[in-house]
Design a protein that fits this description.
The protein has one domain (2-27, 43-157): Nucleoside Triphosphate Pyrophosphohydrolase (Alpha-Beta Complex), CATH 3.90.79.10. It contains three helices and six strands. The protein is 22% helix and 40% strand. The protein is of the alpha+beta class and 161 residues long. Helix 2 packs antiparallel against helix 3 (142-157).
């Protein structure tokens, strides 16, 4: 079984209304639909993440991926944890892959949300700020929702929430 190591970031920013988190709406894969089949119109929301490049540390990957996928520059606060799962590639030889994604809590430093390079639009439809509590409900993947809960707990325990 192939293995993949990725990293991602939970970027937080405090405004007068409370904590905001940067999320992305990935581009949906275009797949042919069967006539008469129902399709979900629900928006897919996720955290920015990507593969760790050779020679790169996972925390560096998280910061790089956040910048590439959201347009934001952020700094490291703490590691939140890992999500582990298996999937089957939808391309090539349809190989099963064991994947580990390390997530890091990051502090927003600068940049404008959704100001990303045109070539990133292949992967990211848009990036947006969402209130932290709302993002926990709206994210599409359970493991990523757990990372937001951990971020919220970290901020609370640090006396920041």
């Amino acid at each position: 079984m192939a293995r993949e190591i990725s990293a991602g970031g939970v970027v937080v920013h405090r405004n007068p209304e409370g904590w905001q988190v940067a999320v992305i709406e990935p581009q949906k894969e275009s797949s042919p639909r069967k006539p008469g089949s129902k399709t979900s119109q629900k928006m897919l929301l996720a955290l920015p993440k990507g593969l760790v490049d050779p020679g790169e540390k996972p925390a560096q990957t998280a910061i790089r991926e956040v910048h590439e996928e959201t347009g934001l520059l952020a700094s490291l606060i703490a590691k939140l944890g890992d999500i582990k799962y298996t999937y089957v590639r939808s391309w090539g030889n349809k190989e099963r892959v064991f994947k580990v994604v390390s997530f890091y809590l990051l502090r927003y430093e600068s940049g404008r949300i959704d100001e990303i390079a045109p070539e990133m639009r292949v992967e990211v439809k848009r990036a947006l700020w969402v209130p932290l509590e709302e993002a926990i409900r709206r994210l599409s993947y359970g493991g990523e929702k757990d990372m937001l809960r951990r971020a919220e707990e970290y901020l609370r325990e640090a006396g920041l929430a």
